[in-house]
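We emphasize that the prediction below concerns an isolated chain of 190 residues; any contacts that depend on oligomerization or on bound cofactors are therefore not represented. The input was used exactly as deposited, without trimming of termini.
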Amino acid sequence: MTHRIATILLLTTALIATSCIEERPKPPDPPEPEVSRLLREMVEEDQELRMNDTLDYGIVDAADREHREVVMDLLAQGGIDDPQDLHRAAFILQHSDPGSCRECYLLAHKLAMEAVRRGWDDARKLAAASLDRYLVFSKKPQKYGTQSNTDSTGHWYLFPIDSATTDSQRIEMNVLPLDSLIAEIEARNL
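Result of the prediction step, given as a token string:
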């Protein structure tokens, strides 16, 4: 009988212990700050518009202009401080129309570099691309080799590249070595 009571007590204790260790729900993530949400949504819209098979440049240009104005307002208010948000703002600005805001590319470069400085390493390639875009639209050789285009026959080419830039500088900015960039362009032309 003592053995039976001991077993019952042991099982009862185990049952009580397991019922007390119920899995508690994980606390919800803190809400996304309004600026972060707004910038994230603008980047998502930017990409959706550009991935659409029926790309309408009138719609894209209007959205780019609206997004750029929002980013400029946020910057003027000092409302963009988070490294990921700096990267998002740079992403939006690097899609500005060169006729209306070529300097936006340089600002995008500076914002992306600030994001990198604050630990957002994903912004490196965007920093390189936005600087290259600024240089190309300033009629200067690009530094890293991120900018390409097609001619009137549909043949892909890289815009001129500054020969002083090294592959180690490219790799530091998460850009492929020059031989690989050239190979990618050649592959597009096959």
